[in-house]
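re: that complex we talked abt at group meeting.

here r the seqs, copy pasted straight from the sheet so there may be weird spacing, ignore it
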Amino acid sequence: MANYNLKINGKTLKTEVSPDTPLLWVLRDNLGLLGTKYGCGMAQCGACTVHINGEATRSCVLPVSAVADATITTIEGLSEKGDHPVQRAWDAIDVPQCGYCQTGQMMTAAAFLKKNAKPSLEEIEAAMSGNICRCGTYHRIKEAVQLAATKM
Amino acid sequence: MTKNNSRRDFLKSTALGAGGLILGFNWFGQEASAAAIVEGITSEAGNTAFNAFLSIQTNGIVTIFSPNPEIGQGIKTAFPIIVAEELDVDWANVKVLQAPLDTKKFERQVAGGSGSIPHSWQRLRKAGATARQMLVVAAAKQWGVSASECSTEKSFVIHTATGKKLGYGELATEAAKLTPPTDVKLKDKKDFKLIGSTIKGVDNEALLTGKPLFGLDFYREGMKFAMIQRPPAFGMKLKSFDALAAKASASGIEVVSFKDKVAIVGKSTWEVKKARDLVKIDWEKAANLESSDDHNRIFKELLDGKNEVRRKDGDVEMAFKDAAKIVEAEYQCPFLPHNPMEPMNFFAHVREDGVELVGPTQTPQNAQNQTAKLLNIPVEKVTVELTKMGGGFGRRLGTDYVLEAAELSSIIKAPVKVMWTREDDMGGGSYRPAVRYRFRAALDKQGNMIGYTLRGAGLNAGNSTRQDNFPAGAVPNLLIDSAEHKSPITTGPWRAPITNFLAFAEQSFIDEVATAAGKDAVQFRLELLEKAKTAPAGEIKYNIDRMKAVIELAAEKSGWGKKKKGVSLGFSVYFSHASYVAQVAEVVMKKGKPVLQKIYAAVDCGIVVNQSGARNQVTGGIVDGIGHAMYGNLTFKDGTPDQKNFNAFRLIKMNEIPAIEVSFVNNGIDPTGLGEPALPPTGGSVANAIFKATGKRLRNQPFIEEDQKLFESVS
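got the structure back, here u go
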């Protein structure tokens, strides 16, 4: 076990946990941040995507020891009032079906749009094709990313 | 954090001793508990319950309870829309809550069979209309006028002659004292304002900000975490296990065994997962360990062996003897896991005085009944709280994962959440059964189908046919039968059970027959329907006119019959779960390979309750259908699936979807469900379009593995 003061969503959060624990489970089991989801545990589906120093990263295979000094953003910290352009676009287009993968989808989209404010459709598809949506809401996700791009 | 600290202790000590640190932890079990929320609302001052479905607060806020499990089908939005329509309430004043299982208040709290909307349509309308009538009577009383002089609009009762208005909130307390009328008049469908409009999901805000809603998000103070090691192959059982290393790996690790399973219990997900890897388990063979090669042999034996007749019209033997042409083909589909993004999980707390169950289930009442039976206690002692589900696709119609949690909690005498990893989930069974079909069709000289036989051979598929579906009724001589092999590999309903692969086979084979007859695919189907109408053979259990209407709508929208340069079209139509869906797939050749460019879908589900939800279901069902027809495959070696996670099992991704254009038939018929019906016709429309484009007839799913070369680019 080791002590960590993790920089998450602009706050410093303290926890004691085994260093090999994936960040995903620290967020969920220790810190009560439940918006980041478990889907596969091997960085294949994207449900657990968070931002590490601004980069979209899969938290299910990322040991907490590797992010002890990193700046971490989860869906809970993407915006203060749930009004990040990506969150607004997701609501405007009414993207979710079951909704389980959508926080990961939005975290991927938000990091992508920060780097590429005016993406082409092909660039959106390339950026988003690592995130699985079992309900098949891909058309609306694509539309929502396009809409969010106009509001960033 | 010392190891003996409870979560709450942790909360306090961190807050006191941390100085500048901001606490990121609060116990969220309360927030995730639907029952707690429900209780809070109904006990709120000035909130009056009108019936099982709704209550109204003095400030005008209407709380609508949605009893059916929300699995992504949008029922938590659709049900309240129907209530709110008849209540004539301003949608902005509506708050929706998930109701827990309550067999006294509600009926059929099930998410399955696309049956929620058709079952509850009248019931929900009546709930809204009854409360509305009570509000009207209360207002009329206050004004000293007749109720018939009053109307309602957007949460107000209005006295038409004087224009006097009273809000629902002001009337609620008095109105609720009245005896509910039993024969309220429902709205004329042409006056619907909410029904048929575009309404966003009621959980959007919570979902998009990461609030805890799902089963895996449920945490409770003092709750233990558990994973279960189940037999690694279908046909194996537990011999012995050694948990010494596992127990030493972290504090509080417990290892117990029941029903050929070994459960690892601990204080966090990760500690439990690591401990599980350390348990040494010996398994032994208890039944045949089947491989995919065995299945291919079994299919052949079943197709050539004894079969159970499902439907027989006319004289098939004679028809084939008289035939000018005979068409024969076989189609095969593999086992498929459901793969909901949220794997199986459930919380159970077996106490002296009762059992608390919380989690994602499509059948809460089954969970309740079977838990009561398992633990030998009265049903009333078991409560079931419904969380939102991260998908289900039929997997959560089963109760195995609920019972496991209940049994484990009863053994360790503690509240516990059992979680399945993706590998547990994909390897854990209840699959879509694998099936092989053999078709034969007899054509006369004019290209009329005079004989038709279908034989289904399934592995734990029950009746792998749907003997009364089209073209039954349209062919004078028809024989449909099936055979089944009982396999140790477990199967269960998978979104649009049986029809999710039968429709592909039937609609592809009909295409083969039309081609052999030298007829247009749409024309051929319409001619068959005409025969079903004018000279029906046996009983007809689909509506001929409704099927014809979706065929014509899909043909019209896609420009069927008009030449589009470089574009090949494939047709398919299917009736399932009481709705009708026709599809046209467009395929173009790019770099020498067929690329699915667009799918047109024409849908008849009667009245569309919510345009946004309905379109999402149809589009999603088609994407699901394409993905599994193209890529989905679960193969076996010695009883163990070869694919256990998304690195090996390929799900469709964003860059693999075509454009989809959805059109609804607007016929005003009472609504039927949409969770399933758009999926079945998909494999057929795609395969038929690929045949048109390449001349290659795809008869085995997944397509990508039947003919890898076909889908490779030629540079």
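couple things i noticed - The CA atoms of residues 124 and 142 of chain A lie 7 Å apart. The radius of gyration of chain A is 15 Å.
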